[in-house]
Amino acid sequence: MNRRQYGANYQDKYATNNTNLYDQYGIPFGEYDYATFTSAASARNEANVFYQHSNKDAKFYVLDYEENDVTSGTTNAAVKAWYNQMRSLTSKKLVFYSYQSFATAHANTARKSFDAQWIANYSSRPTIQTDLWQYTNKKYVPALKESVDASTILNSSKPITWWIGGAQSEDVAQPTYFTDVVTSVKALKKIYLYDSTSFKKANRVVKVNAGTKVAVSSVHKRASGSYYFETADGRYLTANKNYVQ
């Protein structure tokens, strides 16, 4: 987990070097923004700055929200504004991080919009929804000769492959599919049209922003069990209901 920034005005001086090394040695990573926003507008700006400076090879992005600096509007509105802005910029997983008491006091509704929740609670197992539990900040690592934060997965539906198995594609993460053809679908988040039934990055031909409708002419099933749509002009898009409706 790589800290990219401490609020919108401070970029971590080691962030770029660290993520370049992760890339060089093939180490999967996520990036986080330690939040200091003061309002919904401030949260949107902080998200923009975070995404602009982030390493786009990150597997997921995290909002680290553990101090209340909000002076205008509600904390839930500010957290949701950060989430909405990030979702408009990326289709990768968005993760909410905080310690349990702060999460319930200041983001009890907004945190539930995120793809996963990473909760710190050192005294006991969290009692709120927790996909990744930071259970200590004092785990000794002999190779480093020091103690570090440590987390463990609590949600079996989000195993380690969910976190580091690559950027979330249109056919990953507990999908449910349209299995019958419809006349059109609307993108729930940014997706792509492909010139091949293999949804690889190299085969992307058109970016479709959230809220955009796409006319479809047929639906097909892969041998793996997933479904995808075909357009009248021979392009392909996901039929995963996590991405289109």
Keywords:
245 residues, alpha/beta, seven-stranded mixed beta sheet, three-stranded antiparallel beta sheet, 5 helices, 14 strands
Calculate the mean pLDDT score and round it: 92
Task: Give the overall form.
Answer: globular
**Percent in strands:** 25-35%
Q: What summary fits the major beta sheet?
A: 7 strands, mixed
In DSSP terms (H or I, runs of 4 or more residues), the helix count works out at 5
Helix content: 10-25%
Distance between the first and last residues' Cα: 32 Å
Task: Spell the H/E element sequence.
Answer: EHEHEHEHEEEHEEEEEEE
**Integer-rounded radius of gyration:** 19 Å
| Strand line-up across the major sheet | 1-2-3-4-5-6-7
Explain the overall architecture.
With 245 residues, the protein is an alpha/beta fold. The protein is 21% helix and 29% strand. The protein is built from five helices and 14 strands. The chain has helices at residues 15-25, 40-53, 75-89, 100-106, 160-164; strands at 2-6, 31-34, 60-64, 93-99, 116-120, 132-141, 146-153, 184-186, 191-194, 204-208, 213-215, 218-221, 227-230, 236-238. Strands 1-2-3-4-5-6-7 form a seven-stranded mixed sheet. A three-stranded antiparallel sheet has the order 12-13-14, with no helix packed on it. The longest helix is centred in the middle third of the chain and has 15 residues, at 75-89. The two termini are 32 Å apart.
SSE topology:
Elements: E1 2-6, H1 15-25, E2 31-34, H2 40-53, E3 60-64, H3 75-89, E4 93-99, H4 100-106, E5 116-120, E6 132-141, E7 146-153, H5 160-164, E8 184-186, E9 191-194, E10 204-208, E11 213-215, E12 218-221, E13 227-230, E14 236-238
Parallel strand pairs: 1-2, 2-3, 3-4, 4-5, 5-6
Antiparallel strand pairs: 6-7, 8-11, 9-10, 12-13, 13-14
